[in-house]
Amino acid sequence: MAQGGWSSLPADLVNRVADCLLAINDLDYYMDLRAVCHGWRSSNADPKTSHDVRFHPTRWIVLDELSGESDTRLFVNATIGRFLRRRLPLLRDHHFVTSTTGGFLVMADREPPHAARVLNAFTGVLTRFKAPMPSEMHMAAAHARRAQHLGHLVS
Q1: Is the dihedral of CA 37, 79, 128, 90 positive or negative?
Q2: How many domains does the chain have?
Q3: Source organism's superkingdom (predicted)?
Q4: Taking a C-beta distance cutoff of 8 angstroms, is the pair 102, 58 a contact?
């Protein structure tokens, strides 16, 4: 196939590849596939507007932030064992509270009333809650972050 011919692949073939990626929860590769060209993007569902549960991270584990970078996390796909480093600029503006077993990130606004946020790190979908994070969770997250930061400074 000549260079540039990838965009002319039939939509059903592109959809099959996309379905295979979603079957093993490789959401990052799915998003990369959608970024190839307009044709590929328009032939596949947009995770930002779809309520399809296949776009929820289900097989990803958040291991830790990397080398003291507060906006970077290391993920591992528990099914296939693939590691993925993700830079998530939204983490700079929020307190990281925890991650879910599937790979969502739970955050709190830095400013009171510390509203809760849930981020899908693979699709960029951010769910905002009007209710604030319980104060004990917010405080525990803030103290843990300070202790971790001090640990990086000392070591």
Answers
A1: negative
A2: 2
A3: Eukaryota
A4: yes
